[in-house]
Amino acid sequence: MEDKNYMQRAIELAKKGAGFVNPNPMVGAVIVKDGKVIGEGYHEQFGGLHAERNALKDCKAKGTSPSGATMYVTLEPCCHYGKTPPCTEAIIESGISRVVIGTLDVNPVVAGKGAEILRANGIRVEVGILAEECKKLNRVFNKYVVTGQPYIVMKYAMTADGKIATASGESKWITGDEARENVHRLRKNLSGIMVGVNTVITDNPMLDCRLDEAAKNPVRIICDSYLRTPLDSNVVKTADKIDTIIATACDDEKKVAEYEKRGCKILILPKEKTGIDLKSLMLELGKMGIDSVLIEGGGTLNYSALESKIVDEIHIHMAPKIFGGSSKSPVEGLGIDDITKAIKLNPINTTWAGTDLIIENEVVY
Q: Residue 284 CA to chain centroid, in angstroms?
């Protein structure tokens, strides 16, 4: 039970890195000696010290030797040189005698080698304490490092009868303040935010993060097959301050130049029946180091994303309201005619945000 408690603390520490460490994993570490915590740390920012080194640094600051102690770490310690030296070296040099690892690293550069090096140096290593929780912590990193493509979370707000707007097209605001704050937390934690051009034309959103503790604004990605994004829209007017990508199938050099002059990055991609090739877009975003994307589009983009099978999770924000009528649905497109072909969801978490219900689901293809 003690091992689980200390690992749970390491998980809590790791979560503090959300939105600051992408595309690196979130990692937390706790050092325990004689039944007392003598050091704690987490990966605080991309390019900074890893959790293990920060925990050892904490020991030193407190004047306590980690020799003979146990380290609890949510992810297997790295054993290669990157922006920082290998954590395995620091652990070996510290005299720590036991390392408890939540889950092994899926990165082929590490993938069990870190644990092997520790064992080869006489350190007792145990793997698998709260493994599922530790894997969930880094589902974004795990997909990105294995496939090179971003982890995709689709979010939409709807009424209890499944509407995302009134009969007149009003959509602000379906949910309350608490649910909208949760959306900004998602924007903070994920690297990019994606909408379709119709959302830009209709709502003229900023697509920024308005949390005080935000690490940075997400990269804004507009899916715009024919380059219809208004030049006076908020996303274009602020493209010199917030990274903005317009993914298009239009290769009109004059049009492209107008957006580039204002700071937008234009990605010219193949066109599919309902818009740009989203699978190609995912590959390009991955190459740019964008490890995760929040889709906040309308029904057309949502359908295209699901049809392309790029969505990993769907977060449904449901308000206790009914609009009635035949107004817009969260997912439009052609729809299915055979109930057995429905896209299936696996609910993984439900929470309340004020009076609104948030249902988080894995998409099952």
A: 17
d(CA 16, CA 112): 25
The amino acid present at 18, given as its one-letter code, is A
Q: How is 10-64 classified by DSSP, letter by letter?
A: HHHHHHTTTTTSTTSPP-EEEEEETTEEEEEEE--STTS--HHHHHHHHHHHHT-
- Kindly give the confidence (pLDDT) of every residue in the chain, 365 residues in length, as a single tens digit, with 9 standing for 90 and above: 689 999 999 999 999 999 899 999 999 999 999 999 999 999 999 889 999 999 999 999 999 999 999 999 999 998 877 667 889 999 999 999 999 999 998 887 788 888 999 999 999 999 999 999 999 999 999 999 999 999 999 999 999 999 998 888 888 889 999 999 999 999 999 999 999 999 999 899 999 998 876 668 999 999 999 999 999 999 999 999 999 999 999 999 999 999 999 999 999 999 887 789 999 999 999 999 999 999 998 899 999 999 999 999 999 999 999 999 877 889 988 888 899 989 999 999 999 999 999 999 999 98
User: Which helix (H) or strand (E) covers residue 356, if one does?
Assistant: strand 356-364
Q: Which two tokens stand for residue 65?
A: 């030797």
Contact residues for 355 (Cβ-Cβ < 8 A; gap 6+): 176, 319, 320
What is the set of active-site residues? 52
SS3 for 96?
Answer: coil
Strand (E) or helix (H) holding 119: helix 113-120
Burial class (CB in 10 A: 0-12, 13-18, 19+), 85: middle
> pTM higher than 0.70 for the full model?
yes
